[in-house]
Amino acid sequence: MKVLVINCGSSSLKYQLFNMENETVLAKGLIERIGLEGSMLKHQPAGKDKVEIMVEVPNHKVAVKLMLDALEHEEYGVIKDTSEISAVGHRVAHGGDRFSNSVKIDDNVMNELKKCIQLAPLHNPPNIWGIEAVREILPDVPMVAVFDTAFHQTIPEYAYIYGIPYELYEKYSVRRYGFHGTSHRYVSMRAAKVLNRPLETLKLVTLHLGNGSSISAVEGGKSVENSMGFTPLEGLTMGTRCGSIDPYIPLFIMEKEGVPLEKINDYLNKKCGVLGISGVSSDFRDIEQAAEEGNRRAKLALEVFAYQAKKYIGAYAAAMNGLDAIVFTGGIGENSSTVRRMICQGMEYFGIKIDEDKNKIRGQEADISADDARTKVLVIPTNEELMIARDTVALI
Questions:
Q1: How far is CA 122 from the centre of its chain?
Q2: N or C: which end of the chain has fewer CB within 10 A?
Q3: Domain co-membership, 137 together with 10
Q4: What are the pLDDT digits (tens) for 342-378?
Q5: Which residues are bridge partners to 378 per DSSP?
Q6: Is 334 a known ligand-binding residue?
Q7: What is the pTM of this model?
Q8: Considering only CA atoms, which of 187, 186, 165 is closest in space to residue 174?
Q9: Angstrom distance (rounded) from CA 232 to CA 177
Q10: Which residue segment(s) compose the domain that 130 sits in?
């Protein structure tokens, strides 16, 4: 059974084609700058050279056609024709409180997805464009929607309700949702395998650290907290997102800096975070290098990020009344030994200690705990695409 996994952004389309008999990737790729100048297809068939093609891609429908053409291309394709694709799984950012699990897509689901646009106006529309394009081009192929928010639907009411009039929750579904759920679910399951313990017995803090970062408390295999909230803006200070701040600050910025209301969302999402603190970059690799060269603000940005992560770990250990392991994943969590070390330093009270030699790894699964650590520290590369493919097979 071959399953195609698609993740559409506003100007990009990422894809992977899986052979689910052995869960191997047959091909993966990226179409970037959709609707912009300089659009490009980057296609990587398994065991073959990577293909890069400059091509005009005015919209997501053209992008889907380009992807399918690449998959069945005579030279660098991996299937004879699209009839070999048994199902398509789509990543969808926000399912609101309507979807607590992945679902097979039909007209009713599409209507509900459109209602969720108000909750994720930047992310859900391109997700929907991708679904609509595939439905038009491959009308007979079953499709599944897998939601970033679904895993966090087990967060208890007292943890997701904000201190605002309850009527706003009832009218507009204003509550904490949490994101990166597919990643947190995957690494939690892998952690149980690595620790050789039933997932139902574990209390984990999973740290998905990248340009967008979130931290989850996972108790017995269920999410009970996530640092992101009503939107992915809440939580840690991220690459360009401010994270949790005093609610009055946006009003203050609007007044003092003359940022109009219609641009404050863009300001908080794209001009803040470690970029704003460091003045160097939103890329942690650049910030780490600048810090090593003596840049004070770059060093401060790293310290802010690590300090906030520590606070979440401590808070979530308290919320679960225990902690068996913490798990690092995402681009930063998997690859930055510096960030991992900074977060784990000074957490011996929680039994967290890492081995400096073990911590030198990049992008590979490992237990980096010190031998005498009571709480395990794991690095587990995430695989959201495989999780989406598995959910798709289960539903189809």
A1: 15
A2: N
A3: yes
A4: 999 999 999 999 999 999 999 999 999 999 999 999 9
A5: 327, 367
A6: yes
A7: 0.93
A8: 165
A9: 9
A10: 2-147
